[in-house]
Amino acid sequence: MAATDAPATPEELKARIEAGIPGATAAVTGDGHHFNAVVAAPAFQGLSRIAQHRLVYDVFGAEVGDRIHALSIQTKASETESSA
Amino acid sequence: MSDEQTIQIRDAIQSAISENPVILFMKGTPDQPMCGFSARTVAILQSVGTPFAAVNILPDPRIRQELSGLSNWPTIPQLFIDGEFVGGCDIVSEMYESGELQQALGVEDAGEPGQAAPEPEPQEPAPLTIENRL
After folding, report:
1. Which pLDDT tens digit goes with each residue over B6-56?
2. Which residues from chain A sit within 8 angstroms of residue B37, using beta carbons?
3. Domains and CATH numbers, chain B
4. In chain B, alpha helices (H)
5. ipTM associated with this complex
6. pTM of the shown model
7. Bridge-based pairing state of the strands A34-41 and A70-77
8. Which of B26, B56, B58 is nearest to B42 (CA)?
9. Which chain B positions have a beta carbon within 8 Å of A62's beta carbon?
């Protein structure tokens, strides 16, 4: 997904996180520069917080700190179907 | 931008991380943070009452570039304890609230901020600048 010069939106970030991390659900708020993302994904299970946050940052690559000026992240591992 | 200088900056960052048990790379200084996330992280460290070294990444864009290359972490601030990358503002905040940060810093008995914790001494150790280390 190519970066554009258009201002980032919470909707765009949400869609890209959910597309980039299998099974993820994201709630994103923000003003076009500073964003906050609450992300749940089964892929986070067993990972350290650092590794979980890296998965989210990796969705945006070099855009973090640039086009996406700041991205706060809270992650949680969501239950998989099998554990229900 | 010479490669040699970039390598020097990277080496200085690595030395700073290994020589300082607690070191925060931030925008601005503990006395004058230039970003809300850096300010919040400084406030947490000060309320825990642990001495920490600080490096302002703003004077030279290569500091941030090399730091992020080393840590594989895109944002500032970045906290290292005992040479290990701990996280940025979000993770440090979560760890502070859960008590994990105090545990990692060996100050588990720290009571409410301002109670038992001594007055933070931001001048000790002095915020080091990468430039001075070259």
Report:
1. 999 999 999 999 999 999 999 999 999 999 999 999 999 999 999 999 999
2. 70, 72
3. 3-133 (3.40.30.10)
4. 3-19, 36-48, 61-71, 89-98, 100-104, 130-133
5. 0.84
6. 0.83
7. parallel
8. B26
9. 74
